[in-house]
């Protein structure tokens, strides 16, 4: 009787181990099918991405309005300078040799139903594969985008300052609707 009990216990343990092993292999097979399915879906969305009307609207030129989600962006003016002065007698100069400030004057309008917040970190300059973030030197308010709220139907105009190499041109301004950049668009700065 003890022998039958031992064989039964060992058989039961073997059955549990077998079920676990089958479960692991089945899970791996499902994961690889999901990965294949996801990569096929991604490939299909990449193929159709360039042809949709929505994506065509995500690129604008200077002076044109670009709506990204519930936010409308418009680049009014682009200038360069080697020095920025504020009303408090402070002066800012580029921190690197051979660089200048690119000052982008932007109007941001809230086309949604709730207040939005925006600041200079919601903008980036793109040049080929290179990304430029706004200068953190400018700490005064006034004409520069700092963290502020914009109520529905209202707009705010301000400057975003980037430090760039002196001889570089042909940038795109990347704009986004929030801190995480879930919705983005680009404006040519020619």
How many domains? 2
What is the chains' assembly state? single chain
Radius of gyration: 28 Å
Note the overall shape.
Answer: elongated
Number of helical segments? 2
**Uncertain parts:** 31-57
From the 3D structure, determine the CATH topology of the largest domain. Immunoglobulin-like
Which class best fits the helix and strand makeup?
Answer: alpha+beta
End-to-end distance, in Å? 91 Å
Task: State the helical fraction.
Answer: 25-40%
The arrangement of helices and strands along the chain is HHEEEEEEEEEEEEE
Keywords: Membrane, Signal, Transmembrane, Transmembrane helix
Pfam families: DUF4352
Protein name: DUF4352 domain-containing protein
Can you put this structure into words, describing what you see?
- The protein is α+β, with helices and mostly antiparallel strands.
- The chain is elongated, with a radius of gyration of 28 Å.
- The longest helix has 48 residues, at 2-49.
- The protein is 27% helix and 36% strand.
- It has a 5-stranded mixed beta sheet with strand order 1-13-12-8-9, with no helix packed on it. The protein has a 4-stranded antiparallel beta sheet with strand order 2-3-6-11, with no helix packed on it.
Would you summarize the structure shown here?
By secondary structure, the protein is of the alpha+beta class. It is 27% helix and 36% strand.
